Amino acid sequence: MTDHAIFHRPLGVNPPPGYDQAVFGMGCYWGVERLFWQQNGIWLTEVGFAGGDVQNPTYDQVKRGDTGHAEVVRVIYDSSLISYDHLLQLFWENHDPTQGDRQGNDHGPQYRSLIVTFTDAQRAAAEASKADYNNRLAVQGFPEITTTILDEQPFWPAHEAHQQYLEKNPDGYCGLKGTGVEASIPNPDPI
């Protein structure tokens, strides 16, 4: 099993006791993973695929667009240091959730906006934040949010070469770009 290039912990592990996990799809997963590993309270990040109907898909299969998967980042975090609401704020503010099957110049269903929730509380928070951010975007003239919120389902890790890609390739591609509209954070991080 490979270790994380920054945290030096094994990839593919379950959250340790007292930690939670979240999965977010915000377009190309390289920049998304870097965004999350830079946050205080993150224990592990891992890129992969979720939301599709093929077991253990490869990057090439997902790229063809026929497996139904989105590129996602799995985040294991210490909720005593960073709240799920803060993670949602980062999610909404760092991509354009109104673009359907694309992010900027990246086209295809693998680039769609996606949240996978693991608890009823995460589901409720994700739904509430989506409604709130949709209203904030509408005021600024943006179309409806196309983000899909799914209950827990398989996360399929991407190839080792794609894990922490921008740490290994600092000049690599990062298409991460928000709308410039701020999201609210109802429950700030614990002190």
Automatic annotation (TrEMBL):
<keyword id="KW-0560">Oxidoreductase</keyword>
<dbReference type="GO" id="GO:0008113">
    <property type="term" value="F:peptide-methionine (S)-S-oxide reductase activity"/>
</dbReference>
<dbReference type="GO" id="GO:0033744">
    <property type="term" value="F:L-methionine:thioredoxin-disulfide S-oxidoreductase activity"/>
</dbReference>
<dbReference type="GO" id="GO:0034599">
    <property type="term" value="P:cellular response to oxidative stress"/>
</dbReference>
<dbReference type="InterPro" id="IPR036509">
    <property type="entry name" value="Met_Sox_Rdtase_MsrA_sf"/>
</dbReference>
<dbReference type="GO" id="GO:0005737">
    <property type="term" value="C:cytoplasm"/>
</dbReference>
<comment type="similarity">
    <text>Belongs to the MsrA Met sulfoxide reductase family.</text>
</comment>
<dbReference type="Pfam" id="PF01625">
    <property type="entry name" value="PMSR"/>
</dbReference>
<dbReference type="InterPro" id="IPR050162">
    <property type="entry name" value="MsrA_MetSO_reductase"/>
</dbReference>
<feature type="active site">
    <location>
        <position position="28"/>
    </location>
</feature>
<feature type="domain" description="Peptide methionine sulphoxide reductase MsrA">
    <location>
        <begin position="21"/>
        <end position="174"/>
    </location>
</feature>
<dbReference type="InterPro" id="IPR002569">
    <property type="entry name" value="Met_Sox_Rdtase_MsrA_dom"/>
</dbReference>
<protein>
    <recommendedName>
        <fullName>Peptide methionine sulfoxide reductase MsrA</fullName>
        <ecNumber>1.8.4.11</ecNumber>
    </recommendedName>
</protein>
<comment type="function">
    <text>Has an important function as a repair enzyme for proteins that have been inactivated by oxidation. Catalyzes the reversible oxidation-reduction of methionine sulfoxide in proteins to methionine.</text>
</comment>
